[in-house]
Fold this sequence. Notes:
The chain has 2 helices and 14 strands; from the N terminus they run αββαββββββββββββ.
Amino acid sequence: VILSFQNKVDQMQKVNLQEISQEEVVWPESKYRVFRRHISQHLRAQDKDDREPPYEIEHVVLSPGKKFPYYAHTSFWELYYVLSGIGKIWTDTGVLGVGDSIMCPSGEARQIINDNGSDPAYLVIAKNMPFNQCYYPNSDKMWFMGLVLKSESGLTFVWNGFPADYWDGEE
Length: 171
């Protein structure tokens, strides 16, 4: 039993957040801007068996005065955990602060808003699904990830029944 346990320990991955490169995502009209670190993807890259993790974890920092698009996943829930700063979430929950967690069920639209001068940082934890779609109520657009229509990024956006750019209708 001890040997079996040791083999499991050897398969674990570890990473410090500072070791993960930060991706800046800026939307064309500068309404939206976030910095993301893909924790699960970084850990998977270390896995000698290249196993798909059962969940996705992202570290996100939302720039002052910016927000994230209003959307709802249809395939899975998301959990947000606030690490620093203060922000608002566009649901019935209102203001979020350090230590707050919010669980967003599939089908419930939400939007994180930074309407102050701080840089709120939070974790987003979601189930890793082979297929996912999001609905954007403000633009009436659907987003698909998986084998629907193949694109360079593996993501497909549909707006008014046709393939579209992510930003169509969001600005």
